[in-house]
Design a protein that fits this description.
4 strands; about 30% strand; alpha+beta; 4-stranded antiparallel sheet; globular; EthD_dom
Length: about 110
């Protein structure tokens, strides 16, 4: 199992970003071929400050895929490209750090 993780810092207008993210972006992401599960969590507080510098986290999104091969195919899909275009439209690209991680224990 591999997951794609997106960490979003707090936007200037949280309510506006949340409305656009949950109403437009997340529904597009959920259509990605090979996506097993998508979880989005709103950060309520950081317990050990400093590791992320002065970044104030807002949302953590985790998308699970069966394998790296499935994730790579998802990256090529029209749905994934549409999600990226939408994220750019709603201002999310300036707020996000993205990476993948192999799930090694549950």
């Amino acid at each position: 199992m591999i997951k794609y993780i997106a960490l979003y810092r707090k936007p200037a207008d949280q309510a506006d970003f949340d409305e656009k993210y949950f109403a437009t972006h997340l529904p597009i992401v959920r259509k990605t071929p090979g996506l097993l599960r998508a979880e989005v969590a709103k950060v309520d507080r950081v317990l050990v400050p400093g590791f992320l510098g002065d970044t104030d986290l807002h949302v953590i999104a985790e998308m699970y895929f069966e394998s790296q091969e499935v994730l790579s195919a998802a990256f090529q899909s029209p749905e994934w490209h549409a999600a990226g275009a939408n994220l750019s439209e709603i201002g999310g690209l300036e707020l996000v750090a993205m990476f993948t991680a192999e799930v090694v224990a549950e």
